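Field notebook, page 323. I keep forgetting to write these up properly, so this time I am using the form the group agreed on. The chain and the ligand, zinc ion, are recorded exactly as supplied. Prediction of the bound pose follows.
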Amino acid sequence: MITHVRWVIILFLRTRLLVKNRVDTTAVMRYQRINLVIVSAIAFIAFTVSTCAAQTQIDVSDNSYSIRDDIRIGRQAATEIEKQLPTIAERSLVDNHVESVGRRLVRGIPSRYRHRGFLYRFDVVNVRDINAFALPGGPLYVNRGLIEAAANEGQLAGVLAHEISHIALRHGTAQATEAQSARFRLPAIGGAILGAVIGGNVGGLVAQGTQIGLGIYFLRYKREYEEQADILATQIMSRAGYDPRALAEMFRTIERRSGSGAPQFLSSHPSPEDRYERIIEEANLLKRPRPPRHDSAQFQRARRSLLTMAPAPSMQQAIRSGN
Ligand SMILES: [Zn+2]
């Protein structure tokens, strides 16, 4: 692309030189027209460079697991999680809305991050902790507390896009690959992931008898992966018609709502402020959907329906009481 720009500039200068040496006015006019075309071409190339090439390219990490492994691990952990955690009824107002926002975002995943057999599905966990998490291969969970904290559909979409990005970039198995070369025994993974979801003492107990600590590879990602998920989420949101700045706003909303105790969704290394800045930076490189999808009556209805339900327990209470 840079070579093209250089050629156009050389042509432009040559044309100007020719114009200088001629007295024929029609020829001058013709060359002025050529100049105009060349200047427009330069502007067009500059615009193309700034809108396409500037989008951050994500380097996908090495992964010794197969796509089928991701799908199998995710399915197995999902079965375990759904046995233990209370979920909001399928096809309820909230569940339907989260599904439809999720599906819209999945359509925005760039083709190079799509994997055959990944089945993205969305469930709402009836707990008040502000959190969301994703399992390899597609199962994605968003806590009721997070939907209640979101101010609009764009903010909910931001969190879902971030979790979808962890799945699409296969961060769980990439992190496990990096941590140890030997493959984990698959039957042990479900409990370990569940233990990591719950956290604290109860989480440790759930994870016992499995490979303690293993779950963190699938749910608590290193700094680089969190940054990658924020960047891909920004791109997915833009492709799905949302203004990606809503994800940045969501970090601030979560921080405000949670007071001093940092919720799990934010507890990973990059500070919320750094993440905010990085998302805005990436969003500025992308084409802004016009008009962007920001909020909807469906989101506000779904959120209101949560207020009519009995208050949600915390994640740890839900596990202790066996829902
Ligand atoms: Zn994350």
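OBSERVATIONS:
- Residues 2-53 form one domain.
- The mean pLDDT is 79.
FOLLOW-UP: compare against the apo run.
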